[in-house]
Amino acid sequence: MGPAGIRTAHTIEILRTERGLAQRQLADRVTALGRPMSNTMLSRIERAQRRCDVDDLVAIAEALLVSPLVLLEGPSTA
């Protein structure tokens, strides 16, 4: 995974932590938005061990109440 993917993975973790959400809670929010996700899948995305496709990215951003661009550009835009 390239630097952009690693940055996105790190940003997801930062924003989730800032919001006081466990991986399970964020995964449940994403699933409730219609994009089934387990906490294992989310963990692998956060560790840049699993590709975060566009549908995942949009659903995670919505669950975190941010624009998908925030996840792509990094935490400084959050």
Automatic annotation (TrEMBL):
<keyword id="KW-0238">DNA-binding</keyword>
<protein>
    <submittedName>
        <fullName>DNA-binding protein</fullName>
    </submittedName>
</protein>
<feature type="domain" description="HTH cro/C1-type">
    <location>
        <begin position="12"/>
        <end position="71"/>
    </location>
</feature>
<dbReference type="Pfam" id="PF01381">
    <property type="entry name" value="HTH_3"/>
</dbReference>
<dbReference type="GO" id="GO:0003677">
    <property type="term" value="F:DNA binding"/>
</dbReference>
<dbReference type="InterPro" id="IPR010982">
    <property type="entry name" value="Lambda_DNA-bd_dom_sf"/>
</dbReference>
<dbReference type="InterPro" id="IPR001387">
    <property type="entry name" value="Cro/C1-type_HTH"/>
</dbReference>
